[in-house]
Specification:
39% of the residues lie in helices and 17% in strands. By secondary structure, the chain is an alpha/beta fold. Strand 5, helix 4 and strand 6 form a beta-alpha-beta unit. Bound molecules: S-adenosylmethionine. S-adenosylmethionine (SAM) binds next to strand 5 and helix 6.
Length: 243
């Protein structure tokens, strides 16, 4: 997969790709990563890429032309994604769609954003990390990149642990515990210590259903619960009703 990154802060992105699974994916040649410094595509003597918006008002705008040139420089066929608070919120389904693409270009806005003509004519999709505004698209694109890379087979050591995580089956993941067995008089749930895999599986499923019910009941509307799930969720509610 080829991932292109259009930014006015290439150094910011360069430091990020030296760490974690993104770095591993690059080293294993599973992704090819190209950082396109927007200023390299400016025809201005001072390499400026922004200008004042028509109609007045505060703030500057990233100009159409440098971004268009950057997009064109990677050739045809890339899917152009603009990180924007006005885009659709990124969900696991968005990530699953993007990992099947052979080439994507992530376009990071700054200031007031980018010229609308660019969005209308050259952007395939606008995506958002949430209903709030940050100062630039770089962090948003990195969020997308991390979510994407960890789901590409061959990148994480253990894809199974990733496929058990929250949202994969529409639910939140069950809680985890590690050593010591007791700390500050708080013990690990006994069921996790008895080595009975079937009991552990049931407990984890019950907790996954219960935590989703407590924290994100909206998710349950989109999950088809089995008879066992219904029973486990009732058990969870019963066990926690006085807590
Ligand atoms: C200050 S914001 C511009 C906000 C724009 N004027 C508006 O009100 O819709 C500058 C850039 O940050 C990025 N950005 C800000 N918030 C974002 C979000 N929630 N998701 C994705 N990108 C975001 C976008 O690339 C945007 O062009």
């Amino acid at each position: 997969m080829i991932i292109n990154f259009v930014t006015i802060f290439p150094e910011f992105v360069e430091s990020f790709i030296n760490f974690g699974l993104v770095n591993k994916a690059i080293k294993k040649n599973i992704i090819q990563f190209n950082i396109l410094s927007l200023r390299d595509f400016s025809d201005d003597n001072q390499r400026r890429v922004d200008d004042k918006p028509y109609g007045g008002g505060s703030g500057m705008l990233l100009r159409y032309e440098p971004i268009k040139k950057a997009i064109d420089s990677v050739g045809e066929g890339a899917y152009n994604i603009y990180l924007s608070p006005q885009g659709r919120k990124i969900k696991i389904q968005t990530i699953n769609r993007f990992i099947n693409m052979s080439e994507i270009t992530l376009i990071c806005g700054r200031y007031e954003g980018v010229d609308q003509r660019l969005i209308d004519n050259h952007i395939d999709e606008e995506v958002s990390i949430g209903d709030y505004v940050i100062s630039g698209g770089e962090l948003a694109a990195m969020v997308l990149l991390e979510a994407l890379v960890r789901r590409i087979p061959g990148v994480p050591e253990d894809i199974d642990s990733i496929l058990n995580e929250s949202f994969e089956d529409g639910l939140l993941e069950h809680p985890h515990f590690s050593r010591p067995e007791t700390i500050d008089d708080i013990s690990v749930p006994k069921v996790l210590l008895n080595g009975n895999h079937e009991e552990i599986r049931r407990w984890r499923r019950k907790m996954s259903l219960g935590m989703t019910f407590m924290k994100r009941p909206d998710l349950l509307k989109n999950v088809k619960l089995t008879k066992e799930d219904d029973k486990l969720l009732k058990e969870y509610i019963e066990e926690h009703k006085n807590k």
